[in-house]
Each structure stands twice: as C-alpha cells, then as structure tokens.
Design goal:
488 residues, six-stranded mixed sheet, 20 strands
C-alpha cells in the first residue's frame, strides 16, 4: 500500500509510524483488503498529510454484510468460543499496545502515554466482556409453570465509532457484539481510521471469518451501513445531528438503535465544597483530552462566595499545562484532533469574547503548526452565548456564578442535552438530592465523569438512546424474549 507519509521534518519516533502501516486495509470476511480509492488522514499536530487510507465502497460493504449474516448463527451458538476470543483479543491488544498507541497518538494528537493508555484500557474492556454471559431472568418457577426472560442476539450490528476515542469505543462495540452472539461491521471515523484498521489485522486470526469486519470510509459508507436492509442494529457514538440522520435511515427497517450522542454537561459547585480536592478534579473533568470528551464538563457553575477562588485555582492549572506534539517530553495536552473541530472551537471562543466574555487564560489559538488551543477559561458569559448554549468539545470552559440552588439547577437543566452532570459539595446527602434533579443520563457527586465497561452510560433528552456498558448495555445488543411453560 502507498501510505505516502511526509517524513522530511519529523523526529525518528514519528518516522517509525510508516512501518506500522504497511499492508493497511479493511478486515472483511477474514481477509485484509486494501483495494480501491484512498483518502487523506491529517496529522493534527502539524496539519499535514499523515497517510492515505483505503476507502471502502459499496461492493466491499456488501461483502462484509454477507459474511456477517452468513456466520452469525453458528457464532451465536458457541458462547465458549466467543468468551475465548474476547480474552485473546484483550491479550493481543496488550501485546501490541505500544505500536498501536503510537499510531493512535499520531492520528488523534494525544500525548503518547495517553494513546498507549487507550489501547490498554480497551484491552481491559474486552476482558470484562469476556467474563459475561447472557443472563436468564426467572419470573416464575413452580410446579405449575415456568416463566423466564431470555436474551438472544439481534443479528448483524453496524458499529460507527467517533474520532476522540477511536479504539476504546471500537472495542466496546465489538466486544459487546461478540459477547451477545452478534456479528459486527465497524466503521472508524475518516479522521482517525488508521489504528482501527491495524486492530482489524490483529484480530483476524482470533475470530471466525465474517464475525468481525472493520472498514474505513466517510459519510457515504456510514449512511449505507445504517440503511442496509440486512443490518439489524446500529450502535453509534457521535453528534446529535448524525444520530438523528441514523434514526431516519434505520426507520424503514425498524433497526434497533444504541445512540450515545453529544453533551453539554454542567458541574455545580456548592459553597461548602472542598476546593483543594475539587479544583484538580474539575480541571481534569473539563480539560482532559483537550476537552474532547462527550461527558467532559462543558459548563461550570460556582457559588458566588467562592467564585474567585475557583477561577483562580482553575487558571493556575491551565497556565501550568504544556501543549505539544505527542512525542514531546512533559506534554500534558495535545491539539484538537480535526481541523473542522478546531475551527468550530475557535469560533465559539471568539463569539464569547465578542459578547462580554473575558479570557482569564488562553483566548486564542497557539501560534504554531497544528490545531492547538491552550486551556481557555472564560468568565462574564451566560446563557444566550454560544459557548454556553452549545457543545464546544474543546479546551474552552465558561465559568459562571450563581446565588441560589433553585436558580442554578434550572440553568443547569436549560439545554437540549442530557448526557451527564455533577454536584460538588461536602454534604453528600445534599449532593445526592441535587443529583436527582439533574435531567441527565449520568449524575455524579464530587466526580465528573464516571465511565467503564461495567457501568451503564448514555444520555437523556437529545443526548441519545439506550445505554452502553454493564448488564443494561449488554441488553441493548439483545432481543429479550419471554418464554413460558404451563405444566398442568
């Protein structure tokens, strides 16, 4: 394959990426296929072409769907083989974590230790799914009758993965599909397809042909997957607008939907909060992965009595951050992963500053190659400004003050989004009471967020449908059937 890497001005650790991409292709019916057109993948840390990736077209999608359909029933019948495959996938990911993490960082811009950490986290998620089995709920068991709820596979799952956590979310959807006896066709984001295709090559000998297919391509491929009549379910993580389009595409065949969509999470800090403990957690909750997390803190409301202290503490952490390429020593944050997202966050930041906002830190993009925005804290804005009303998905945080709890809870809920939210207080019972008032899929006290393979995660309102993770998440990949026997 012609990867066409530009290695003229890169340090050696970056040149080494080239060797990982030899033979890169889609995993389809047990084979790695690299035929067809190519598209550019841009390195976010310098804005130049990193590689040219194969693009799957209609013919390859049809082959993947046929293979997934053909292999599904025998795959569903062998639970031990599925558990063994998941355990082996976890081990394989760990074995190749450094290599995969290098490519992951190259295409996402994450600092190298975070890129590698994502691979190891994905391995742990696969191990959790390897320990699961399809639960049977017994509702009645007597001499007269037996009534149970059993779980059966949905069939063929289309898994569409975003660019901010491409491998963790890829493995989550693949592992849930395997654990429940489904076959899967996964598509990576066109901004970050390289590591996903490498994972496909690594999984090739660990699962039967056709049970796992991994393709790369753009919106046309995604739309074809979600509308395909032989796809039974779509598991998608991404924007609200894309989620709506997917629901519309799947409506004619009543596809099952698992949609984890955008968020505009609020964190509410009460006057009694332990700021020494809370401020570092609030900072990480807002600025981890350069703010490119769906459940990151997007709006911070602080009681007026401690407002200045919180702003000062958050600003100190922001000023200590070091932005740079994945390969630089001491880097704590990378660039925005995509140019469109960089442009959007810049636009939101500029709009806030033009509408009364004050940049306590940051306030403009860094004057360097790539898509870098420093940790930016903005005060002096409120609802009605785009930065507050919309999901920024970047390292720009509005901090706002409030006076009474009823007012701030109303403001926290005044959004179409409902992914997550948090309350920060020394009074745990009060925190639980207020968490109950957040109209969100996840509500946390003195933490933000909480995610993991065993923890159901998803949104309310426009932030999605269903839950990923835990037993509830496994159920999302199943048809629940009630079976009843009358003995007399």
């Amino acid at each position: 394959m012609d990867t066409q890497l530009d290695t003229t001005t890169r340090p050696q650790v970056e040149v080494d990426i080239e060797r990982h991409l030899v033979g890169l292709g889609h995993l389809i019916d047990g084979e790695v296929v690299s035929d067809g057109q190519r598209f550019d993948v841009i390195a976010p840390w310098n804005g130049r072409v990193l590689a040219r990736c194969p693009a799957a077209e209609a013919e390859l999608l049809e082959k993947a769907v046929r293979s997934a359909r053909r292999s599904q029933q025998s795959w569903a019948a062998d639970s031990e083989a599925r558990r063994s495959a998941l355990a082996n996938i976890a081990d394989r990911l760990d074995e190749h974590a450094d290599d995969l993490g290098t490519v992951n960082s190259a295409e996402t811009g994450k600092p190298l230790h975070i890129g590698v950490g994502e691979i190891r986290g994905a391995a742990e998620h696969a191990r959790w799914y390897a320990r699961q089995s399809l639960r049977v709920d017994t509702l009645e068991d007597s001499d007269a009758e037996l009534t149970q709820v059993i779980r059966e596979p949905v069939g063929v799952v289309a898994a569409i993965v975003p660019w901010n956590g491409p491998i963790l979310m890829l493995i989550n959807k693949i592992a849930a599909s395997i654990a429940t006896g489904n076959t899967v066709i996964a598509k990576s984001s066109p901004f970050t397809p390289l590591t996903s295709l490498l994972v496909g090559a690594l999984l090739r000998d660990l699962v039967p042909a056709g049970t796992v297919n991994i393709l790369a391509g753009g919106d046309v491929l995604g739309k074809a997957m979600t509308a395909h009549p032989d796809v039974n379910m779509v598991a998608f993580t991404g924007s609200v607008d894309a989620g709506r389009d997917i629901m519309a595409a799947g409506a004619p065949t009543l596809k099952r939907m698992l949609l984890e969509l955008g968020g505009n999470d609020a964190a509410v800090v009460l006057s009694d909060a332990d700021l020494e403990t809370a401020i570092p957690k609030l900072y990480r909750g807002a600025f981890a992965l350069s703010g490119q997390i769906c459940a990151a803190i997007k709006r911070l409301y602080v009681h007026e009595s401690i407002f200045d202290d919180v702003v000062e503490g958050m600003a100190a952490l922001a000023l200590a951050a070091k932005a740079g390429t994945p390969w630089e020593d001491g880097v704590t944050m990378g660039p925005l992963t995509t140019k469109p997202q960089f442009d959007r966050v810049c636009s939101l930041m500029e709009d806030a500053l033009q509408n009364g906002g004050r940049a306590v830190t940051g306030g403009k993009a860094l004057d360097k190659e790539g898509f870098f925005i420093p940790p930016t804290i903005i005060t002096g804005v409120d609802h009605g400004v785009r930065l507050v009303d919309e999901e920024q998905f970047g390292p720009v945080l509005p901090i706002m003050s409030y006076r009474n709890l009823d007012e701030v809870m109303e403001r926290a809920n005044a959004t179409e989004f409902g992914l997550g939210g948090s309350i920060w207080t020394a009074d745990v019972q009060e925190g639980l009471r207020l968490a109950g008032r957040l109209r969100t899929g996840g509500a946390w006290v003195n933490r933000h967020p909480l995610v993991g393979a065993s923890i159901p995660f998803g949104g309310a309102k426009q932030s999605g449908l269903g839950r990923e993770g835990g037993q509830i998440g496994l159920d999302a990949f199943c048809e629940l059937k009630t079976v009843s026997v009358l003995f007399s």
